[in-house]
Amino acid sequence: MKKFFTIAFLLCASYLFAEIKVGALLALTGPASILGLPEKQTLEMMVEEINKNGGINGHKINLIVYDTQSIDDEARKKFIRLVQKDEVKIVLGPTTSGESLAIKDLALQYKIPVISMASSDRIVNPINKYVFKVAPSDDHAVQTIYSYLSANKKVKVALLTVQNGYGDSGRASLLKEAKNFGIEIVADEKYLDTDKDMTSHLSKIAAKKPDAVICWGVGPAPAIIAKNFMQLKLNAQLVMSHGVASAKFIELAKDAANGIILPAGRMIVADQLPANDKYKAILLPYIKDYEGRYKTPVSTFGGHAYDAIQIVQQSIKMGGDDLASNIEKIRGYVGTYGTFNFSETDHNGLSKDAFVMVKIDNMKWKLLK
Amino acid sequence: MKKLNLFYLSFLAIVIVLFYIFVDNQFYKSILIYIMINAINASMLNILFGYTGVISLGQAAFYGIGAYTTGILTVHFGCNPLLTILIGILIASFVAFLVGYPTLKLHGHYLAMATLGFGMILYIFFNEFSNYTGGPSGLVGIPKLSLFGFGLDNEDKFYVFISIYFFIFSILLELFDKSYMSYKLKFIKESEFASKSFGVNVSRVKLIVFVLVAAVTSLTGSIFAFYSGFISPVSFNLKYSIDIFIMATVGGLGSIVGGTLGATMLTAFPELITNFEDYEMIIYGTLLLIIIMFFPQGIAGIFKKFWGRYVKS
Fold first, then answer.
1. Residues of A with CB under 8 A from a CB of B
2. A73 with B235: Cβ contact below 8 A
3. Does residue A157 sit in the same domain as residue A239?
4. A365 domain residue, yes or no
5. Are A60 and A91 in contact (CB under 8 A)?
6. Which residue ranges does UniProt annotate as crossing the membrane (chain B) (predicted)?
7. ipTM value for the complex
8. What are the residue boundaries of the structural domains of chain B, listed by start?
């Protein structure tokens, strides 16, 4: 009898103190580190809070973060490490599109759900039962930009896109959506995100006399473009992608950032939202916690991590071991970027309303319209 | 003619077999697969630089030619996988010939710059030729290799395949090291003028070695493409060329075990210290610095110093 109690006690204890292992693959170094760092900080903050409140269904979360160095192959290695060595149940990230595509097949092979924080459509299309993403699609961002530009009669557009997974997929969207909005593309230039000077690209573009220049990139390069753009005194509206929606960009571009418009999540303009906006209630507490803890301004990328961990939390709460099927059942989750409605055929769950147009004015974000 | 280093070969075989039997975790197997791939690339560079004295910072490009030939031909044209490996080797050899013929007349820094430029051109090509290469976001959906009806669809099976490839490669490497050819190459490295005066056709030998090394690197690239199932230009950029260069240097230039030792160390070590997070890079850098400063002969040099009788190079 005594033995029975001991075993029963041990079983209860192991159930109560069991951890849920959650892996994260983030680009903490390399060109995408501007994105990876706020994601890591947000995850650590959220996990600490969840564990302080007793975990999920009584289980504490054990977060394991690996740096992918913004390299596709490294993400692949680290994914196998998370799944095989650390035996995680679910993987958050990777940060960039290329890394996410690199592990897409592995997720299916090992049957581990992946919640990517990158934006490329190819991550969820064609659909893979185990791969989800929380970042809005490029199509949504492009539609937001184009409807703003065509409303303001700026129809001659030049493109300047970065040569990586992010820029590639943005460029594809920009080219695809152009005719739906009556936009004429007059130049289509590309740059490498290690380039240190873009005046030659911009001079070529200037010759075509566009009304607007759309730059699609992340990291320090867009800031260089903004500076070169100012030095060349180009007479056009400079439009950036949502990839630069962090305070780091303004810090790098300094006053060259003024006047730039971009589509962005509501996070950076949360205080300017109308009082009855349903996202305001979520964003303000997160911003207060984050800025209070890390003493740096929030960026929308941290918001992706916030959404990802909330989705993990909801899917685990539903019970059962099949987390991928659980995520497919999540409807109406109000996140930092919009309302997520996942389904078996939609592993992103966001719609065009994820974006608002934002202008940088006097080195501050300003909500347009 | 020296005797073959049977100790080293049997040691390799035992380690590979024991690892297969006792290690169940696929993560460790995947690390060993990467080690073997890197070891082959680093050993080939070692022959080029350590033996012949031809510096090349464009090896990743040949690796990429193999991987992309296989990727493009299988994904877009549905070719027979084994055939694509062969086509990759032919293309890489041809490109190596075209590049090597004029550039191998250069020496030292100039040759380094030329090969570096070649690597960059190929990197841009992989990015820009996006209708076929998939551009910067990569090529998805490369089928798994299957040999004689056995599909190599998981780490276990692939481990067996790459082990056999690696072991055969190691035997060939060992045979090369003890052959007349390796002395000829070392002679060229010592002094091109002296070897010329002894009747060695220096430029021809260098070109042959360059083409052969490119062919083997391309073969390894094709195998990598089958293993990974996904390739993107980032895997074949300058960083990878420099990585294998460091592996060969740290392992020991001019020593046949150098490439393997360096690859083992530099592939496994970052995985071991991942848990230190922020200090990872500092530890890694310090280690490289110590080896280069105090052991210019690389790890193979350390072994030779202490256990000279076992690892005669």
1. 29, 65-67, 71-73, 76-78, 80-81, 83-85, 97-98, 101-102, 104-105, 109, 120, 122, 163-165, 167-169
2. yes
3. yes
4. no
5. no
6. 6-23, 35-62, 82-101, 108-126, 158-176, 207-232, 244-269, 281-303
7. 0.82
8. 6-235
